[in-house]
Amino acid sequence: MKERSKERIGNEGKEYDDGGSKPQPPVARKQQRSTRNVRGRGREGGGRGRMPVHYVVLPALLFGGVAIVVYFGEMWWAGPGVNKPLPLPRAVSETWRNDSVYLTRLWGTYRSNVYFGIRPRVPRSLLAGIMWYSNDGSGRMEIRHSCQHGDDLRQYGWIRHDGTSYGQQRIVDHEMMLETEFLTMANTSLGETWSARIRGKPLSQRPILTSLIVYLFNEGKGEMAYRTSGGQRSLEEVYGHTPEVCNELYSQFATER
């Protein structure tokens, strides 16, 4: 055992004397080699993972250009189709003012979004309708005008209607019932005329103050004025002119209790 250890010491000393460098233990040599290998691999791997910038920029620009071309192509393709007229006869002739059939249906209950509304078959013209509200002492004023599910009416709708010249409707609110009637009379001395009648009936035994409003509104061109009677408290008539419908407009109001 002693001889072998001496020989190893002698050999190590020989290597030290011949090589001129300090001998290192075997474990330190292995660690140094592994560190060198890791560093070498890191340099090689980092260089191999890099990608040129133009490999990313060019596909992005190409994709964006194709998307822009497709978008404007679809807009161009859909544009002419929307503005292209249908090859069908016109629903309303350009000479409708001279058409007797059209004049018999000029005025009607064509305002389907309100409980009761009248208008002619002309855009931006004269509108007529009603609205009402009850003062039950609670401080709230719930106006009934447009058909709303939240109004919770018991009933509303036409009982009779011929689609052209006559209609009768019944509206049942919580505390009152309204009956509306509409009638048109064409080819009279006054021109195209129509009349409407609104009647109310209380449904509750306790007295409730209800306000009924009948309105006329001109959404087009023209002028309107009114006259009152009974000390400026009752509307008597409305007059004026609307070029979209007629040259002269005259409406008369009557109230019965």
TrEMBL record:
Glycosyl hydrolase family 63 N-terminal domain span? 106-234
Subcellular location per the Swiss-Prot or TrEMBL entry:
Endoplasmic reticulum membrane
Gene Ontology terms describing biological process: oligosaccharide metabolic process; protein N-linked glycosylation
What Gene Ontology cellular component terms go with this record? endoplasmic reticulum membrane
Q: What general EC class does the enzyme of this chain belong to?
A: hydrolase
Q: Where is the composition biased (Basic residues)?
A: 30-40
Q: What keywords were assigned to this record? A: Endoplasmic reticulum, Glycosidase, Hydrolase, Membrane, Transmembrane, Transmembrane helix
Superkingdom: Eukaryota
Q: Name one GO molecular function term.
A: Glc3Man9GlcNAc2 oligosaccharide glucosidase activity
InterPro entries per UniProt: Glyco_hydro_63N (IPR031631), Glyco_hydro_63N_sf (IPR038518), Glycoside_hydrolase_63 (IPR004888)
Catalysed reaction equations from the record: N(4)-(alpha-D-Glc-(1->2)-alpha-D-Glc-(1->3)-alpha-D-Glc-(1->3)-alpha-D-Man-(1->2)-alpha-D-Man-(1->2)-alpha-D-Man-(1->3)-[alpha-D-Man-(1->2)-alpha-D-Man-(1->3)-[alpha-D-Man-(1->2)-alpha-D-Man-(1->6)]-alpha-D-Man-(1->6)]-beta-D-Man-(1->4)-beta-D-GlcNAc-(1->4)-beta-D-GlcNAc)-L-asparaginyl-[protein] + H2O = N(4)-(alpha-D-Glc-(1->3)-alpha-D-Glc-(1->3)-alpha-D-Man-(1->2)-alpha-D-Man-(1->2)-alpha-D-Man-(1->3)-[alpha-D-Man-(1->2)-alpha-D-Man-(1->3)-[alpha-D-Man-(1->2)-alpha-D-Man-(1->6)]-alpha-D-Man-(1->6)]-beta-D-Man-(1->4)-beta-D-GlcNAc-(1->4)-beta-D-GlcNAc)-L-asparaginyl-[protein] + beta-D-glucose
Compositional bias (Basic and acidic residues) spans?
A: 1-20
Principal localization?
endoplasmic reticulum
What transmembrane ranges does the database entry give? 53-77
EC number(s) of the enzyme?
3.2.1.106
Region named Disordered: 1-46
Give the family, as the similarity comment puts it: Belongs to the glycosyl hydrolase 63 family.
UniProt protein name: Mannosyl-oligosaccharide glucosidase
